[in-house]
Amino acid sequence: MNGYAGNILRVDLTNRVSRIEPLPEELADNFIGGRGFVAKLMWDEIPAGADPLGPDNKIIMAPGPLTGAFLPGAGKLEFGAKSPASGGYGDSNVGGHISPEIKQAGFDAIIISGQASTPVYLLIDDFNVAIHEAGHLWGKGAIETETALKHELGEQYQICTIGPAGENKVLFACISHDFGRQAGRTGIAAVMGSKNLKAIAVHGTKGIPLADPEATLAKGKEMFAACFAKPGFEEWTPQGTAGVTDWVNEVGAFPTRNFQTSYFPQHKNINGEALVSKIKVTDKACFACPIPCGKYSRVKRPGYDVYVEGPEYETIALIGGNTEIDNIEDCAFANYIVDELGLDSISAGNVIGFAMECSQKGIITAEDLEGRTLNFGSVDDFVWVAEAIAHRRGIGAILADGVKRAAAQFGQGSERFAIHVKGVEWTGYEARYAPAMMLSYMTADVGAHHNRSWAITFDVASGRDKLEGKAKRVIELQHIRPLFDMLCLCRLQWVELGFELDWYPQIFQAVTGKTQSFAELLKFSERVWNLTRAYSLREIPGFGRDFDYPPRRFMEEPIPDGPAAGKVMPREVIDRLLDEYYELRGWDQRGIPSRAKVAEMGLDFVEGVIAPLRS
Length: 615
Hints:
- The chain is an alpha+beta fold.
- The chain folds into three domains: 7-203, Aldehyde ferredoxin oxidoreductase, N-terminal domain (Aldehyde Ferredoxin Oxidoreductase,  A, domain 1); 250-425, Orthogonal Bundle (Aldehyde Ferredoxin Oxidoreductase Protein, subunit A, domain 2), CATH 1.10.569.10; 435-549 and 570-613, Aldehyde Ferredoxin Oxidoreductase Protein, subunit A, domain 3, CATH 1.10.599.10.
- Helix content is 41%, strand content 14%.
- The protein is built from 26 helices and 17 strands.
- A six-stranded mixed beta sheet has the order 2-1-6-3-4-5.
- The longest helix is centred in the last third of the chain and has 22 residues, at 518-539.
């Protein structure tokens, strides 16, 4: 099959064996790759009701058909597992260079099952697969481990690792790669930790079959040239995603003080200009990337001297604004700490902001905090909590399970300001004055994540007080953006440069030989969206509409200050958005796909599971 390596690698950690089997053509024809492979293999391979942190859960890694080709941003890798954070469908993707290496080693998917009895790492060198002891790496930081394995194995290996947070099964632990790239969301690193799997190292030397190599090369050259010619190229590249900080703050959507408000007066101290002028060393790019969003930084101040990739926007928002750390140096240092510990910087900033508010309100006390209080704006307090979480020390053991579970244990009204959906913490856009963005978070299949539908620009352009057309646009974005995760291409060329979507069916044809219009490709993405909904319906008791509501703070507390002062999104507005969204999706009012939608999507294999759940 053109565009595919043609093989799946299965690794059984319990028995420390592996085997290689052919990639089913039907899987490629119906689910494309990347996120599509992850969703279908999770449905087929992980037993219903499996403990997310037990041996029956599986980690699935999948590049896509365009991975490794000479195309802009062709280096994304999708991870999937039953999410320990939500208990339902979980995936996360990472850039860097490991995805092309997996394809060049000869694999379109890696399925990791079982549980090693002692710490191990997985070594893949083309078809030579081995499981090695990793006791000497256990306890080391994520970046420290990657460095050690590079010295041990050689620079030719691409490596992903977990830190102490993953080892200790923190439910928002992240997988680290390329010294600062993370598969951060849904807690898949905790699944690695539960399997005693410290790292995966890959080296490949094989070619990738292309339907039309000359057309692929020609289209690739055209696409790179088109990226460089875009008006936003020179403007966007120096700051990367950090450059959006001022705009988000100016429209009143910047999470501040555990989402108590949406405007941070000190934002210019942590924005893209501050990053570039004070700490940036150089740009850093993933495989085949024409717009390097990574900013490699050095922070040297009394008490620390560290290098870190970042901080990017989401880290600035959740570690900076949300915990009120008001200078780029401390923000970058906190970024370094969570990277080394192996904590998702988004969830870490959210959870620690929640803990700070609980401390300020007396919900948790000095007795709970080893004699201290937690203060917004204190990098020392941030680091103390992060380390307690990663090692599950004291109150960190409660916070390590995320804000939903922590609030259930703390009580005293803390549930209303535990900012999450489906147990996954909210990312960097306060949405009480952004109905499309609010709906995007509510209905994202993995929990509160912006990458499925970044709709806030549509809110601003179309009128933030209007509800008309918002659900329709969210659904459109939920098909477009995840399609990139199936092809395993970076979406930033489209998002930040306005790169035309018409390019993608052209290169899909050049690589695979398959003729699909962009509209037809979106149907594949819609199929996967319905499949991931079905997966969570299968796995989470009572899953449906109640799991799609935002935290009470957003429905009951008006924003106190800033450009969005006074704005709130009452329950009746939330229900209007959900009603329209479900209707447009072909789901019932509990959020369960109809029989007609299941048939339309070619998902008959899920019907027996979800039919009894319909209202």
